[in-house]
Amino acid sequence: MQRQDFVSATEHIADWIADYWHTLRDRPVRPSTVPGSVSAALPDLPPADTDTIRAVLDDFDRIVAPNLTHWQHPRFFAYFPANVSPASVLADMLIAATGVNAMLWETSPAATELEETMMDWLKTLMDLPPLWHGVIQDTASSATLAAVLMAREKVTDGRAATKGLAGLPPLSVYTTAEAHSSVEKAVRIAGLGSDGLRIVPHDDDFAMRADALAAMIADDRAAGRLPALVVATVGTTGVGACDPVADIADVAGTEGLLLHVDAAWAGTAALCPEFRAPFAGLDRADSYVFNPHKWMGVGFDCSAHFVADRALLTRTFSVNPAYLQTTDGVTNYRDWGVPLGRRMRALKLWFVLRLEGADRLRAMIRDHVAWADWLARLVAEAPDFDLVTGPALSLLSFRFAPGGTDAATADRLTGALLDAVNRDGFTYLTRTLVAGRPVIRFQIGPMTTDWSDVEAAWTRVRTLAADLHPGVAAE
């Protein structure tokens, strides 16, 4: 591609992005795509000759764009947010253009030292322990895997890494049924098996019971198991539950287990001092992760992982062939996780924190939490709906339960309502189970959202509910 062609294409793409963001509110959140229709629109074979950038962009507009689910949409209230700010997009352009591999300090000194500094900035902004050491992983799943492997390294004194797990007592990792699925995946990858994941009972608020944790550890020791790690969550995916980190740290410290805290979504709320109460005791964790690529406007992927013992983390992952041996006395992030190759993700944090600013991010978080409170009141006051959980920060869940319906009917109607909402496309919501029964999650997180979007989505939910069941008021 010639220079002028590249400049012209980037100008076109920049205009497309600006128009896309400007028109998002007028689009459905989800497309009405039929499975297989996108692949059917693509050629069976790759081209042998070059194509024009104009043709590629036209096909993007024709095939790809109409079949996207719009995660940046102001009425995207499903899952958790994956916010992308303009500042992050600009940084990603430079990351792609420079093509830096940040595996070693010498392969790009600026990438390494920028990452070190950005992790220090996050510690300052969120009042995290100053002696922690930080690294940007791709996702919280990778950070959780790192924590499991660190615990395996420590509790087996390195034997698992050198000789394998054969001949060792079975290892145990403790969490609750509300923890993210990545915990079980990490336990499997680490070779501990699903039986090595011990599910600790939770209380009525879905928070881990520290007394039950202590009892399970004692029972496992008596049964010949080797307790290794506790994974606590601040802001679970299902309902936003928060485990009592300080109480869990007491148990982990007494029993000699590592403690990993997963705050992938909720961690960004710690930018605001008034939302830090659930993080009490966090300074005693051995590993902690939250995702700036969820609620902070830093485009995917950017997961902030902190550890108390840098040497344990690097010992767990370091493999040092001759072709990777390099300068001593510097940080080489290839030893801080599974991948060798690494993108210069810190540039996105740098751009976002400078161009968006911490105060603007705090204001957004406070708005989202306030709007979740207002929405919860509307749900609680609606005669045909039950507010089931929350709000936990900006997340709540509800059930469609018209007067006179039994539990089975309410569950069926709740599922039918969610299907109707997501077929409609005006907003996008997701499901979870609470005490074994289906509920609808509503999580406010997009940077583009204002209260009118929340209110409009709730109005549409009620309208669709009225279509499903006679006698239900539309508003």
Category by helix and strand content: alpha/beta
Strand content: 5-15%
Largest sheet: 7 strands, mixed
Radius of gyration: 24 Å
User: How are the strands of the largest sheet arranged?
Assistant: 1-7-6-5-4-2-3
What would the average pLDDT be, to the nearest integer? 93
CATH superfamily of the largest domain: Type I PLP-dependent aspartate aminotransferase-like (Major domain)
H/I helix tally: 16
- Low-confidence segments, given as residue ranges, are none
How do the helices and strands follow one another from N- to C-terminus? HHHHHEHHEHEHEHEEHEHHHEEHEEH
CATH architecture of the largest domain: 3-Layer(aba) Sandwich
Helix content class: 40-55%
How would you describe the shape?
globular
What is the number of beta strands? 11
Beginning-to-end CA distance, first to last residue: 56 Å
Which fold name corresponds to the CATH topology of the largest domain?
A: Aspartate Aminotransferase, domain 2
CATH class of the largest domain: Alpha Beta
